[in-house]
Amino acid sequence: MPTPFQPTLLVGAIAIAMGISTSTFAQQPIQDAKPAQTTLDTLVVTASRTEQNIEHVPARIHIIDSHIIEQSPIASFPDLLKHDASINLVQDGGLGQLASIFLRGTESDHTLVLRDGIRLNNAASGMASLAFIDTTDIQQIEVLKGPASVLYGTDAIGGVVQLVSKTPEKNGAFLTGEIGEKSTYKSVIGADAFDNGFYAQIRGQRLESDATKVTNQKTQTSKTAAFDQKGYSAKLGVEKERFGLSVDYSENEGTNLYDAYAFDGSLLEQDFKNEIINVRGRFNLTEQLELHARLSQFKDEVEQKDSTDYVDSRTQEAELYAKWQFTPTQNVLAGVTYRNLEGDILSYGDPYKEKVDSTGYYLQHQYTNDQLNTQLGVRVEDNQKYGTHVVGQAAARYQVLPSTSVYANIGSAFKSPTLNELYNAWTGNPDLDPEESISYEIGLDQKLNYGFNTGVSLYYTEVDNLINAVNGSKLQNINQATYQGGELYLGWAKNDLFAKATYSYVKTENEDTHQELARRPRQALTLTTGLQNEVYGISASLIVKSHSKDWDPNYRNPGYATVDVNAFWNVNPYIKLFTNIQNIGDAHYKTSYQDNGYYYVNGGRLASAGVTFKY
After folding, report:
1. Residue among 489, 505, 395, 378 nearest 440 (CA)
2. Which residues form the TonB-dependent receptor plug domain (predicted)?
């Protein structure tokens, strides 16, 4: 191993674990273990704003559940997303480095990232700071594929990635420690309280790592891009039949090093901090009518330590919506969202401080029974800068046979210009129009004999008014692009064994130049297989990507394949041991082209082991 393990604390913890009697194990079964594959009663909230059985959703949704999230506290948000074949997750180096989502081939700022409804996309760049988002208290991550601007407004052209946080359901406490290669350490502590619908939760975490080199530059320095973060979160609330109220606060801050773009191996240092405040309320006016409200603020700050540059981004939202269940099979969702985006930025000596207000009004009808599920919606967005914009969506899933269902949807979406695109002194253009899209999708899901299930989906998306620069000039609405492809999956589960393979194909094209878009591998494959029950489990995951173009037509990013291995053992109801190996073959591959013939590279293998104590 490049960096020796420092296992003193871990060995001590394991020794304590092994020394504790397991005589109570058979009498007190583990309650929090669950199968790795998506179960039939999996509930999702992103597609319709309310809980819905995933089998009824007329779209593709990928679920990353709590079992996977908790398996390795060291695993970052980008690491978790890499296991979805429809996402090309491009990270400019290893742990803590800039990461971008290309969902179904769409642009890196065409995927909206949410946490419990809060927009995490940076007001300045339009992208979420994926590497700086902590997942400590997350119950599940939902990846909704396809347009979702009707419910969520701007940025949801390719889809929505939503982190759904945990809500306490019982009293308890835990302590987790994980130690890995490259001097990587992660510790998490938390406690929950629950009594008659009232609950409280607190979490704290700390991560340190020497990390790895960011590029393949041949230099004299061996310095690595170290990463350090810490954070905490707290939640208070009450959940009753007639009403509910919750207050959430979370904060995550740290320091990371990144390549200075000087081609001599030098690194720059920056501090980051993000803060979330979320107040949510629900009141059931009648058995058929619910009223929901949300007030939230997300602050995303970065300050350069080696220069005067900084980015202070703030997003404030107020939302009110009602759900009326006017028949046993039909409901209407009507709401309004006010959003204020504000940025205070100094980039390469050019400052600006601006804000943009927008108000969105949306209406959605939903029909649900055992055979047919439909969604029909419209949104009117009134933006301070570009005026009024209208989008709509229609979707349906039909249960043809007890084991066969088909779905189809059509929807339009938009992405409003970011503050950087509007006001940056070098390339900004305050006259930009929003990017607009139209998407079509059909799909089929089939349950087979002997525990098998399969499905296929085909889609086509067209985006107009793409924002781009021509020959280094200011940004303009000039391009049109198309994205067409499909996904195919095959799953199997029997007793404690499971396996699932997913294949994704996407072809992108700039209609002006007839060239393929950068950083979009045409083909991707993921395969996960293993054994899991309430006591122990072991699994392996394969990720394969084909080659892709990059911004320089003379260079391309080679394809690659990696394998992750995970295992755990619930020694008794109070102690869990686990181990993880990311990229077990230590495959070193180029993630994206940098410049001057050099590439950003991945971080290689990261083997780790840990223990969780629960009470």
Report:
1. 395
2. 55-160
Q: Where are the alpha helices (DSSP H) in 48-183?
A: 66-71, 77-81, 149-152
Binned at pLDDT 50, 70 and 90, residue 2 comes out as very low
Contacts of 552 (CB under 8 A, 6+ apart): 593, 595
**Burial bucket for residue 24 (CB in 10 Å: 0-12, 13-18, 19+):** exposed
**Helix or strand run (H / E) with residue 351:** strand 350-368
Q: Which CATH number fits domain 8-614: 2.40.170.10, 3.30.70.20, 3.40.50.720, 2.40.170.20?
A: 2.40.170.20
pLDDT digits (tens, 9 = 90+) for 341-382: 999 999 878 899 999 999 999 999 999 999 999 999 999 999
Supply 472's token pair. Answer: 């280094």
DSSP label at 432?
P
Phi, psi of 68 (to 5 degrees): -75, -40
Would you say 463 and 157 are in contact if contact means Cβ atoms under 8 Å apart?
yes
CA distances from 514 to 483, 511, 613 (A): 12, 5, 57
Q: Is the pTM of this model over 0.90?
A: yes
**Cα(133)–Cα(120) distance, integer angstroms:** 9
Tokens of 564: 């992750």
Closest-CA residue to 102 (of 48, 161, 162): 161
**Does the pLDDT at position 32 exceed 50?**
no
8 Å CB contact between 298 and 315 = yes
Report the distance separating Cα 592 and Cα 551, nearest Å.
9
- Residues 441, 573: Cα–Cα separation, whole Å: 45
Evaluate if residue 21 carries a pLDDT over 80: no
The domain segmentation of the chain, as residue ranges, is 8-614
In 151-197, which ranges are E strands?
159-165, 172-180, 184-195
Query: Residue 16: is its pLDDT beyond 70?
Result: no
119-132 pLDDT, tens digit each: 999 988 899 999 99
CB-count exposure of residue 536 (10 Å: 0-12, 13-18, 19+): middle
DSSP string over 60-105: EEEEEEHHHHHH-TTS-HHHHHTT-TTEEEEESSSTTS-EEEEETT
Between CA 115 and CA 172 the distance in angstroms is 24
Confidence of residue 218 (pLDDT cuts 50, 70, 90): confident
Within its chain, how far is the Cα of 533 from the centroid? Answer: 27
Beta strand 198-209 with 159-165: parallel, antiparallel or unpaired? unpaired
Strand partners, 436: 414, 464
Q: Note the pLDDT of residue 471.
A: 65
Please give the DSSP secondary-structure letter assigned to residue 55.
Answer: G
Q: Name residue 457's beta-bridge partners.
A: 443, 487
* φ, ψ at 222 (rounded to 5°): -110, 15
Of 158, 163, 79, 151, nearest in space to 112 by CA: 158
